[in-house]
Design a protein that fits this description.
The protein has 244 residues and is an alpha/beta fold. The chain contains 8 helices and 12 strands. A hairpin with a 4-residue loop joins strand 4 and strand 5 (114-116).
């Protein structure tokens, strides 16, 4: 099986369409596309991105910006730019869009892997894996559900963690898999934050036992101008070209 795993889209249709074209253009067909949450937030095309995900029947998990858009979590602790974006996004979405977002689970389990937005332990808190301790807790949660591979988004930084002693990690775009449990952050489709502005997604090939992280050029200026035209904070437009 070949799976495309898409990280945070953040209402960036220019990036999303580029990634989906790349997925569709693979020499070996991709059997399934899944998505790691935060379809909306920050960018200027939340409806177009959400409806594209729906039309493609992409299975998703809920992200914190998805929940912010439906008022399921407080935005009091969001920074000023994220708060402005969340409030704007709420006005763009119909009740049907909000109902659909509200129906998405915090985790999903598939035959070969599991998905969550931030962590597998306490996914409702939308925390980050920032320490070995955080990673260990999520590895324990994966073990409880019988999964050896977990995919996350949220940090927007592509990285793979391995449940070795001690826990190790890799930033390589080609990640070989073996029997060692691993957690892989698929980066971000629409707002990378590893100082690389190229759109990112992961491809899992269960026959080759590999995960490949692809980086793709897209029309950043188009996405940025849409943010400006929508009246959203300028910093949200500028950050796209900086990968921050």
């Amino acid at each position: 099986m070949r799976y495309a795993i898409l990280g945070d889209i953040h209402a960036n249709y220019d990036a999303l369409s580029t990634v989906l074209d790349h997925v569709d253009g693979q020499e070996e067909p991709v059997d399934k596309i899944v998505q790691l949450g935060d379809i909306v937030g920050y960018g200027a095309e939340p409806v177009r991105c959400l409806e594209t995900v729906q039309e493609r029947e992409i299975e998703v998990v809920a992200g914190n910006h998805d929940w912010a858009a439906i008022e399921r979590i407080s935005i009091d602790f969001f920074n000023a730019y994220a708060k402005a974006s969340a409030m704007w996004t709420r006005e763009q979405l119909s009740n049907e869009h909000k109902d659909w977002l509200g129906q998405q689970p915090l985790t999903r389990n598939f035959e070969h892997f599991s998905l969550a937005h931030g962590t597998f332990h306490q996914p409702e808190n939308f925390n980050y894996i920032q320490t070995v301790f955080d990673a260990q807790l999520s590895f324990e949660a994966l073990q409880e559900i019988g999964a050896k591979i977990g995919f996350l988004g949220h940090s927007h930084v592509p990285v793979g963690f391995f449940n070795t002693d001690p826990i190790t990690y890799t930033l390589d775009p080609e990640i070989p898999l073996d029997d060692t449990p691993c957690i892989i952050n698929a980066g971000s489709v629409g707002q990378p934050r590893d100082e690389n502005p190229l759109a990112c997604y992961a491809l899992l090939d269960t026959e080759k036992n590999t995960v490949t992280l692809s980086r793709l050029e897209y029309d950043i200026e188009s996405a940025a101008q849409k943010i400006r035209d929508a009246g959203l904070p300028e910093v949200l437009a500028q950050r796209l070209s900086l990968g921050k």
